[in-house]
Specification:
The complex is a heterodimer of chains A (about 110) and B (about 800). Chain A is of the alpha+beta class. Helices cover about 45% and strands about 10% of the residues of chain A. Chain A contains three helices and two strands. The longest helix of chain A is centred in the C-terminal third of the chain and has 20 residues. The relative contact order of chain A is 0.13. With about 800 residues, chain B is mostly helical. In chain B, the strands form three sheets. Chain B has a two-stranded antiparallel ribbon. In chain B, strands 4-5 form a two-stranded antiparallel ribbon. In chain B, helix 7 packs antiparallel against helix 11, helix 23 crosses helix 36 and helix 25 crosses helix 26. Chain B is elongated and about 100 Å long. Classes of the chains: A alpha+beta (about 110), B mainly alpha (about 800). Chains A and B meet through helix 2 of A and helix 16 and helix 17 of B. Chain B: One of its GO terms (cellular component) is cytosol.
């Protein structure tokens, strides 16, 4: 599982470096990393500060629409910035923010 | 052992404790058993306790003497505050909260006490007026006091103390008088917590403060060892040196001084129980209202927070940046995770900075946490920053939320949260009873809307915005300008167009002259205006002065008060140089009749009358518009004076009309110029003279002179006036004779404009225009002056270079 995550990260990187202009565009929907066996989708999203979000979705459930994914990423991004605003949070540390976790869980629950 | 200095409260508290431990009544030695129990009650890790015993020397002695005991207590307080145990810190740590000892029920109280240390308790009081144990007033006072020490005032106490006593001291009698009352009461005792003095209870009065809810719980079970509260021990209130109150939960009478911090003064529970449940709830609410009931911030606490805020950010409406806040709260020794959580709760607008309210909330939460309260998941209402209107305390509610989080007084927290709302409601009244809490009461009501938390959120930000509104000021300058204008137009352009001020004194003298024609040339600055305006003769001189000063570039620079309308410039513009004069004249023309009275700053404008009269006359005529009736006259005279002092312009104008003094003015101008501004004046005078030669020119010249004078101000006296004249003349008829034709032209122009303006005395618009003109004139004059000076500078530099070269050349020879 984590292997997929890493591979997807590589792909994201590749995409970033490839795109000369709007790098890590918010709408960097990375759809399509489907492994033959694992049928799950990995979505990528890069912020302006090169922070990458990856969402792995099981394809078993009906695919989420592109918009939904984007909104998820947006929420993620917002929560992330809130976390970053916390002076006590050292960038790089695993995020321990309850609020953040709450939002993330909420999203996951929402999307099934 | 090093000597130990204790505050009074500490002293009292410690002695109580010692007595408590002195089971054998030896008055000298505390029984080890009791002592150890006590230390255990401090809820410190055992190794810390061991360390403390070692440090205090008991290990050496094998027993706890009074001094050792005291030292140990202090070390406990230090340890509870989270500071490293050092012998040297015994005396160095200031404001150390009293050590908290959680003993059974007193814990809760203690907690409260700790939390609420000050205000809270008080809050409690009001509520629990009824039942509350009639704790000895002392206790109660503690609570009320909210002073840090009064941490855990039991509800009962709360009731009582409300009134009166909130004495901080730990009632010796009351068992657990939470030391809250003790003064420094660690931050825990944020006032909010009403320390419940376990007054009633014989135990310490835990500072019920915030933990209103806790109280209830405690009360009932009574046993609830103040668990949560006890927790605080570890927290040392962020502010260094606060004393942690020792909240003894149960029985330790001496410990009655439960630091208010411990809201969970368990002891109170006993008494509390007795208290009508309502009371307790009230108290609890009060406490909670500290933060939010428990979360309410008492006044004392809030004051404390505000003071802390000030140390970081003196501007109470400003923000504390995240990094500073981080540093500050890190001092509280809370784990980063908790601090992070507190931040999330308190940074309401998520901007990475803390407003005063947010800061208070955060602080409150930290205190609560330190006192063992769990951090809430959500910002308690009373801590929400929305209540900006109410008091900053409103925001403190945030912290309450956090309380739930920390597990320490688990019981407390759960209670707090749920009961908070209710408590808050109850508390409000109590709070209100206390003056201190008035503000809080409001908040408590807000806390009542705990459920409507969300709705409160919205206002928070706007409120914050409201809180920090920057008062809008009417541009003073504008107003001032207008005033100046009015003044100018109306009476005297005295307002110092600053540059002219330099000369005002001189001018004023002359101004005094009846004719006042003297252009206040001296103050070129003012002159322009003054002359332009038909001020009374008196004014003229003054204004003249101003104008003169204004005219003279130098003067302008010097005086140049921002507001004063440029009027003065016109007149004094001249001061700096011929060119300047001219410009001034031009600019000041409108305002100042003074023609070229180059405002020599130093020159005394007053040369008076004759010239002035003549000048003004000329000036006026020439520039009728320059000065309103009288002004015109002045201008005529002023021109003459202008050379000397631009300030006279005004007056001269007036008189100028009357007199056909032009001819005389001319000479006068010269005269003026000389006295006025020495060289410049002469120059100015010259031109002036020439200008004046013409009959009409007279007027003009006067005008110019006036203007020049006015504008030139102190700086370029002679040239200015000359300019003025020229200007006026020019206006009247193209003149070449004027030397400073340029200047005078300028001046004349100025004058031309000026006179008109002054006429319309009282007409704001014109006044404004006049002032504008004057300003422009002044500007031009100054610009010219500037250029001239720069040229001079260049020349001088060249000279210097040449001299240096020569020197070099000579040197070799000398070396030889």
């Amino acid at each position: 599982m984590s292997a997929f995550l890493h591979t997807s990260l590589d792909v994201v990187e590749e995409k970033i470096s490839a795109v000369g202009k709007s790098l890590g565009d918010q709408r960097e929907l990375y759809l399509g990393l489907l492994y033959p066996t694992e049928d799950y989708k990995v979505y990528g999203y890069v912020t302006n500060s090169k922070v990458k979000f990856v969402i792995v979705v099981d394809s078993s459930n009906t695919s989420l629409r592109d918009n939904e994914i984007r909104s998820m990423f947006r929420k993620l991004h917002n929560s992330f910035t809130d976390v970053m605003c916390n002076p006590f949070h050292n960038p790089g540390d695993p995020i321990q923010s309850k609020a953040f976790d709450g939002i993330v869980s909420g999203m996951m629950v929402q999307t099934g | 052992m090093e000597s130990l200095t204790l505050t009074d409260i500490e002293q009292k508290y410690y002695s109580d404790l010692f007595v408590y431990c002195d089971t054998d009544n030896t008055k000298k030695v505390a029984s080890n058993g009791r002592v150890l129990d006590l230390f255990r009650a401090a809820q410190l890790p055992s190794e810390v306790v061991l360390q403390i015993t070692e440090l205090c020397g008991a290990t050496r002695l094998g027993h706890f003497g009074r001094s050792q005991f005291y030292i140990a207590l202090k070390l406990i307080a230090i340890a509870q505050s989270g500071l490293p145990l050092r012998v040297e810190s015994l005396n160095s740590v200031k404001d150390l909260p009293l050590p908290r000892f959680v003993v059974g029920k007193n814990e809760a109280e203690a907690r409260h006490a700790a939390l609420y240390q000050d205000t809270d308790s008080q809050g409690l009081y009001p509520a629990s007026a009824t039942a509350v144990i009639p704790r000895p007033p002392g206790r109660g006072l503690q609570n009320k006091k909210g002073p840090p020490s009064s941490t855990a005032l039991p509800v009962h106490e709360v009731i009582q103390p409300l009134a009166p006593s909130i004495e901080p001291q730990p009632e010796p009698t009351s068992p657990v008088v939470s030391p809250h009352q003790s003064p420094p009461t660690s931050p825990h005792s944020w006032r909010k917590h009403k320390r419940q003095h376990s007054g009633g209870n014989a135990d310490r009065q835990p500072v019920v403060a915030a933990t209103g809810a806790v109280w209830t719980q405690f009360r009932e079970p009574q046993a609830g060892p103040v668990p949560g509260e006890g927790m605080w021990p570890s927290h040392s209130p962020p502010p260094p040196g606060q004393e942690s109150w020792v909240s003894f939960t149960a029985d330790t009478p001496p410990s009655s001084a439960l630091p208010a911090m411990h809201p969970s003064s368990v002891q109170e529970s006993t008494t509390i129980r007795t208290v009508a449940s309502a009371a307790t709830t009230n108290e609890i609410q009060r406490q909670s209202s500290g933060y939010d009931d428990p979360w309410k911030i008492t006044d004392e606490q809030r004051q404390y927070y505000i003071n802390q805020f000030k140390t970081i950010q003196p501007d109470l409406t400003g923000f504390i940046p995240g990094s500073a806040a981080k540093e500050f709260f890190t001092k509280s020794k809370l784990p980063i995770l908790e601090l992070s959580h507190i931040w999330e709760l308190s940074d309401f607008d998520k901007d990475g900075a803390l407003t005063l309210d947010e800061f208070c909330a955060a602080f409150h939460l930290v205190v609560a946490r330190k006192n063992g309260y769990d951090l809430p998941e959500k910002l308690p209402e009373s801590l929400m920053p929305k209540l900006i209107d109410l008091d900053d305390s409103a925001e403190v509610s945030e912290s309450t939320a956090d309380v739930g989080y920390s597990g320490s007084p688990v019981e407390v927290t759960p209670n707090k949260s749920p009961s908070m709302p209710s408590l808050n409601q109850a508390w409000p009244e109590m709070n209100q009873s206390n003056e201190q809490w008035e503000t809080f009461s409001e908040r408590s009501s807000s806390s009542q809307t705990l459920t409507q938390f969300d709705s409160n959120i919205a206002p928070a930000d706007p409120d914050t915005a409201i809180v920090h509104p920057v008062p809008i000021r009417m541009t003073p300058s504008k107003i001032h300008m207008q005033e100046m204008e009015l003044k100018r137009t109306g009476s005297d352009h005295n307002h110092p167009t600053s540059p002219l001020l330099a000369k005002p004194p001189e001018l004023s003298e002359e101004a005094k002259l009846p004719t006042s024609m003297k252009f206040v040339a001296a103050n070129t600055v003012g002159d322009g205006y003054s002359s332009s305006d038909s001020f009374t003769s008196d004014q003229e001189p003054i204004t003249r002065q101003r104008s003169q000063s204004g005219t003279s570039p130098e003067a302008l620079k010097v005086v140049a008060p921002p507001p004063p309308p440029p009027r003065p410039h016109p007149s004094h513009s001249r001061s700096s140089s011929l060119d300047m004069n001219r410009t001034f004249a031009a600019t000041s023309a409108p305002g100042q009749p003074q023609p070229s009275t180059i405002a020599f700053p130093p020159a005394v404008p007053p040369r008076p009358l004759p010239t002035q009269t003549s000048v003004p006359l000329t000036g006026h005529r020439g520039e009728a518009e320059v000065a309103p009736g009288g002004g015109a006259v002045l201008t005529t005279t002023s021109p003459q004076q202008i050379p000397q002092q631009p300030n006279f312009a005004d007056f001269s104008q007036f008189q100028a009309f009357a007199a056909s003094e032009q001819p005389s003015s001319l000479p006068e101008v010269d005269i003026h110029s000389e006295p006025g501004q020495a060289e410049k004046s002469s120059e100015g005078a010259g031109p002036l003279r020439t200008v004046k030669s013409d009959g009409q020119a007279d007027e003009r010249s006067s005008a110019t002179v006036n203007s020049a004078k006015g504008s030139s101000g102190p700086l370029a006296p002679p040239p200015k006036p000359v300019r003025r004249r020229l200007k006026s003349e020019d206006e009247l008829r193209p003149e070449d004779e004027q030397h400073g034709p340029q200047k005078s032209n300028v001046i004349a122009a100025v004058l031309a404009t000026q006179p008109s303006i002054p006429r319309s005395v009282g007409k704001d618009k014109k006044a404004i225009q006049a002032s504008i003109r004057r300003n422009k004139e002044t500007n031009t004059v100054l610009a010219r002056l500037n250029s001239e000076l720069q040229q001079q500078l260049k020349d001088l530099l060249e000279e210097r270079i040449s001299l240096e070269v020569q020197l070099e050349q000579l040197r070799p020879f000398s070396h030889l």
